[in-house]
Design a protein that fits this description.
There is one protein chain. By secondary structure, the chain is mainly α. The chain has two domains: about 5-70, Arc Repressor Mutant, subunit A (Orthogonal Bundle), CATH 1.10.10.60; about 70-195, no CATH class. Helix content is about 65%, strand content about 0%. It contains twelve helices and no strands.
Length: about 200
């Protein structure tokens, strides 16, 4: 058996976490999300399971970290998709719809939606990691949030609101709605709330 970490141990815990996440991604590619466990990741690195558990409390936490690490690619795609949208409600509606539609097709970001992980998504939809992801979504949009009446607290509230809408779509998908119908629904019920940050604050 090769020495732990392939004979090249990490310099610190941050590097160890990065290498564990990279190994987890490789394992998901090889075995699929349902069959990947901490044992597979540990074996790929030549370390013990305890080494992985020292940095990640559970396999669920590790998979969340994998999803977070994959978020950048999704955000790049989202930024390109909504690049022409300047009006806040239009951008948010399309951002929610696009993310919902892409999640099942993005292997790593979609880990949150696999069988047995819906509860994880439910519990972590407003976690610091999820809120940071949502805030990054807003920052990638070409919207002048300040000019639209959004302060820092309003943006935090908008991120939470958007994540909760996405959560509801994930947990109970609108199976009978087409892409156009989903957007029409979000335009009818979500867009008005996005257009009135100052009135909502009052």
């Amino acid at each position: 058996m090769p020495r732990g970490w392939g004979g090249d141990p990490p310099r610190d815990d941050d590097e160890a976490r990065e290498r564990i996440i990279d190994a987890a991604m490789r394992c998901v590619e090889l075995y699929g999300p349902h069959k990947t466990g901490v044992s597979d990741v540990a074996s790929a690195l030549g370390v013990t399971r305890q080494t992985v558990y020292r940095l990640f409390d559970s396999s669920e936490e590790l998979m969340l970290a994998v999803g977070a690490a994959a978020a950048g690619a999704h955000l790049d795609g989202l930024a390109a998709h909504v690049a022409d949208l300047r009006e806040p409600a239009e951008a948010i509606v399309e951002g929610i719809a696009y993310t919902f539609e892409r999640l099942p097709h993005e292997r790593f970001l979609g880990l949150l939606l696999t069988t047995g992980r819906s509860e994880t998504f439910l519990k972590n939809v407003t976690s610091p990691e999820a809120m940071a992801f949502g805030r990054a979504m807003l920052e990638r949009m070409h919207v002048d949030w300040e000019a639209a009446g959004y302060g820092a607290e309003d943006l935090d509230g908008l991120v939470e609101f958007g994540l909760r809408i996405l959560q509801s779509l994930v947990l109970d998908p609108p199976r009978q709605r087409s892409r156009a119908e989903l957007r029409a629904y979000l335009q009818r019920w979500v867009a008005p709330a996005v257009r009135a940050p100052s009135r909502g604050r009052a």
